[in-house]
Write a structure and sequence with these properties.
This protein is α+β, with helices and mostly antiparallel strands. The protein is 27% helix and 27% strand. The protein has one domain: 7,8-Dihydro-6-hydroxymethylpterin-pyrophosphokinase HPPK (Alpha-Beta Plaits), CATH 3.30.70. A hairpin with a 4-residue loop joins strand 8 and strand 9. Helix 3 packs antiparallel against helix 4. 40% of the residues are buried.
């Protein structure tokens, strides 16, 4: 069974935003044939589109998975639903949780249900900056490192790094006495 690396964008601007992100990371780590291997810092970011709503908490989780991109998308949708996100919602609306597959093994996929890499990735510092916390992958369309895309994104926003830190549940249980080691979950 081949393994794949995927980068999942995680965001929330409803309720306890940090807890929503942590629940999503915990649930990703419980998906069969999947493990969260790293998590970014958490950033406070302005909403895009409808700006008359709360600011978002955003981050990125790196996962190692045997799932196909389509199966991973379904698992992300199941997690969103379990955490309270409705199946249908207006574009730019507030979200209790939002999970997006940003990158998957350097692949480019475009179907009616799934586009990888995320089509707005290069324009959004709220995912580009957290991606730098967990690596500096290459965007498969532009063939540029994420650090280069940060410089050319045109996004004038400045995500504010928060003190709160997401942790991987498996690692948290195993190393509960050493919180400084929680960023890397492998």
């Amino acid at each position: 069974m081949s393994r794949h690396t995927a980068y999942i964008g995680i965001g929330s601007n409803v309720g306890d935003r940090f807890a929503n992100l942590q629940h999503a990371v915990d649930m990703l780590d419980l998906v069969q044939d999947t493990a969260v291997t790293a998590v970014s810092k958490v950033y406070l970011t302005e909403p895009v589109g409808n700006t008359e709503q709360e600011c978002f908490f955003n981050g990125v989780a790196v996962i190692d998975t045997a799932l196909s991109p389509e199966a991973l998308r379904m698992e992300c949708k199941n997690i969103e639903h379990t955490l309270g996100r409705p199946e249908r919602y207006p574009q730019w609306s507030p979200r209790i949780i939002d999970l997006d597959i940003l990158l998957y093994n350097g692949l480019c996929i475009k179907t009616d249900q799934l586009v990888i890499p995320h089509p707005e990735l290069q324009h959004r510092k709220f995912v580009l900056i957290p991606l730098l916390d967990v690596g500096n992958p290459v965007h498969p369309v532009f063939r540029q490192r994420i650090s280069d895309l940060v410089e050319t994104s045109g996004d004038l926003s400045v995500p504010a790094r928060l003190r709160e830190q997401l942790v991987c549940k498996k690692r948290r249980i195993a190393e509960n006495s050493n919180p400084s080691s929680f960023r890397s979950c492998s």
